Amino acid sequence: MNNNTKINDKQLLDLLFYLELPRTIENRMLNYLRQGKISKWFSGIGQEAISVGSTYALNKDDMILPMHRNLGVFTTRGIDLNSLFCQLMGKEGGFTKGRDRSFHFGLPSKNIIGMISHLAAMLPVATGFGLASKLKKQKKIILSFTGDGSTSEGDFHEAINLAAVWNLPIIFLIENNGYGLSTPSSEQFKCKKLSDKAVGYGIKGFTIDGNNVLEVYNTISKVAKDIRKGGGPVIIEAITFRMRGHEEASGTDYIPKKIFDKWLKKDPIENYKKYLKSKKILTDTIQKKIDKKICKTIDSSFEFSLNAKKPKSTFSIEINDVYKKHTFNLKSPKDKGLEMRYVDSISNSLRDIMLNNDKIIIMGQDISEYGGVFKITKGFLEKFGSDRVRNTPIIESGVLGASVGLALDGFVPIIEMQFADFVSCGFNQIVNNIAKTHYRWNESLNITIRMPYGGGMSAGPFHSQSPESWFFHTPGLKIVAPSSPFDAKGLLNASIEDPNPVLYFEHKYMYRNIKGLVPNDYYNIKIGKADIKKTGTDVSIITYGMGVHWALDIANKLENDNISIEVIDLRSLIPWDKNLVEESISKTNRVLILHEANLTGGIGAEISAHISEKCFKYLDAPVMRLGAIDTPIPFASDIEKEIYLPINKIEQKINELLNF
Ligand SMILES: Cc1ncc(C[n+]2csc(CCOP(=O)(O)OP(=O)(O)O)c2C)c(N)n1
Asked: Cβ contacts of residue 159 below 8 Å, gap of 6+?
């Protein structure tokens, strides 16, 4: 061990205190685990030098995204131990109201953003913080932890690639402990050193001894200094070993004993003590003082947390915490405006929104010079500059994760999915990270995800889908799907005003085929408020998106036969307007739910179930549903229009309803 840093003896002893603190806490927690006082524990014993050395080397305002073995990050940052222990024990007074476990929480006040269970999912989030730091010219470092096993995840690649392309101030710190759960490195990856991967991203990479706290401290200090000067991201691989099982229940049978014996000799704390003693910095008296200080630091917090109550809640508290409360102020349009295409309404509204709010950053594939594949952001680069209009590499998960970091740092990201179909590659970020953050630790994410969706243009199975029901099932998201240029502007404005994540489904067929009046002035439409597009008395069609246009065509046609159809455009899918739907059915007594997406498990199923439960007394016929057939979307235009899509079946369904 070698101290070639400028840290003095007091700081060297400080480091010892910070190393011993998480070890002592863990040993006590392991006792409590045996006594059944806590339910699960992921041990970092043997790996403390990495958490402690790196956190000690950074400034307090540098952002850290730790993983499941990084108790030392939290203790070295000096977070409140009463709250931390309550969190770890699942008690009242923790950081998540008992809604999530262990280190799964963010603490923006301490510049720590905790993990979700999904490995590597926070690495893209780190890029968002890195971009925020760069845009604000803060010179903050972002330290993002990952295990060696997690480096095989796609998010690892997407995040580092993005950080490299954008030259972001991020240290990607890999704790290589030789195993991913029970599977050894030899079965996880083929490269000799994980830091060698840096070459492939065009950045620097280092491998260090992760059990040597001074080496960790020195490396992070030096790398941080370089990054603050604009040096760009770095991968650091810290070689270490965990001295316990993956988690306590998993045991250690899968690791040969001789490996434990070898690493016992490399214990980061014992070796550091030996070093300090050899330099006459650590004496028995000082050691006693440190031990005493540790007890003083943790004893009362253990007592506090052991005596704390289990969290309690109510239905309404749980439901209300899924979304951040938002007071909607209706702003009605003052003028009739101009007739324009749906695509122009979205483009113009987006431009106006960006003019009025410089926190908005738009990101997506080919959206910059090229203006996006649908040309919605054409000219935006010239108007708003490359900081705010950002081409990304082809990384759906990466950019969605980055939007989380940006939103947590006060920006308002708008992400364009090139086609809604490709959102499947970013699914995890939306349903697990973006959707759950407010419920878990109370932070809202004002992220709008634009989803060009829908068929009717002979674009085949991968460029035509209507994937709204993939997200409909996930609490924490809002979903809108405007069907007119007027609604497109009002709902886009409302999506940006809303502090919660919104998926904005914009229909590709409508872009250049649907026109309508769009007021010039700012206005908004309440998310969750449906619209009666045509009043009627005989049948209600509940629909959205292209279904609105199909329904209106049929309604206008059947008017000649004295059949009066009410067309309800939901406009918002989460939340959806139950009141208006119920009201309409109480009048017409017959209902058809119509959507473009295929029938099974579609949104119509949920609406139908609700109607059966709440409107049974009004119904003169069974609730009918119509969607596309349950096949992938065929490419051939005649098959798509005449067989796949439900257009030709609507009239027949109306007749069935009327003749029941
Ligand atoms: C996406 C995902 N897949 C699987 C798991 C289950 N899992 C939790 S930890 C772990 C091993 C992680 O290994 P590594 O990244 O090396 O970190 P370590 O636990 O060794 O610190 C696995 C497979 C998970 N949490 N997330």
From this structure: 120, 123, 124, 126, 127, 144, 172, 398, 401
